């Protein structure tokens, strides 16, 4: 019995570390898309909604890193709730919140303008996160 305890304790930690590392890769991809997408001649649609898609993928992976014992479905639900709250928070305007949204950090974390299309991009991004997580789990099982 004692021999199984470390495996049980290590599995969630390993899962969290893998998801956090993947989130960092997704963050790098998202920042690259936002900073270099237009100079590379990518369409505005790809830059805008691609960034939103990657943001939601990052939210899924970070939620999974912080809550490694939840199922993928539960993590996806948490990520969807976060994405919906953040999107609808764009309808709330206070001087301090609007000032924060004008900063680079505020724009990347909260966005600036409400769009129902972002919710579609978020759903696709969360689906991408689920798929990535599944692929990594399958590779680890081999």
Q: Major sheet: size, sense and barrel closure?
A: none
State which percent range the strand residues make up: under 5%
Uncertain spans, ≥5 residues at pLDDT below 50?
none
Number of helices: 6
Backbone structural class = mainly alpha
Helix content range of the residues, please?
Answer: over 70%
Instruction: Encode the helix/strand succession as letters.
Output: HHHHHH
3D structure, described in words:
By secondary structure, the protein is mainly alpha-helical. The chain has one domain. It has 6 helices and no strands.
Please give the structural blueprint.
Layout: H1 5-36, H2 44-66, H3 72-89, H4 95-101, H5 104-110, H6 116-141
Keywords for this entry:
single chain, 6 helices, 142 residues, mainly alpha, 80% helix
Explain briefly what this protein structure is.
This protein has 142 residues and is an all-alpha fold. It is built from 6 helices and no strands.
């Amino acid at each position: 019995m004692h021999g199984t305890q470390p495996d049980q304790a290590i599995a969630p930690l390993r899962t969290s570390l893998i998801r956090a590392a993947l989130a960092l890769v997704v963050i790098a991809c998202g920042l690259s898309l936002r900073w270099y997408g237009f100079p590379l001649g990518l369409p505005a649609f790809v830059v805008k909604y691609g960034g939103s898609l990657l943001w939601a993928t990052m939210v899924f992976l970070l939620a999974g890193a912080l809550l490694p014992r939840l199922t993928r479905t539960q993590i996806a639900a948490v990520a969807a709730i976060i994405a919906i709250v953040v999107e609808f928070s764009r309808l709330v305007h206070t001087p301090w919140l609007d000032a924060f949204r004008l900063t680079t950090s505020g724009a990347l974390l909260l966005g600036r303008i409400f769009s129902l299309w972002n919710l579609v991009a978020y759903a696709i991004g969360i689906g991408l996160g689920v798929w990535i997580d599944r692929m990594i789990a399958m590779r680890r099982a081999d």
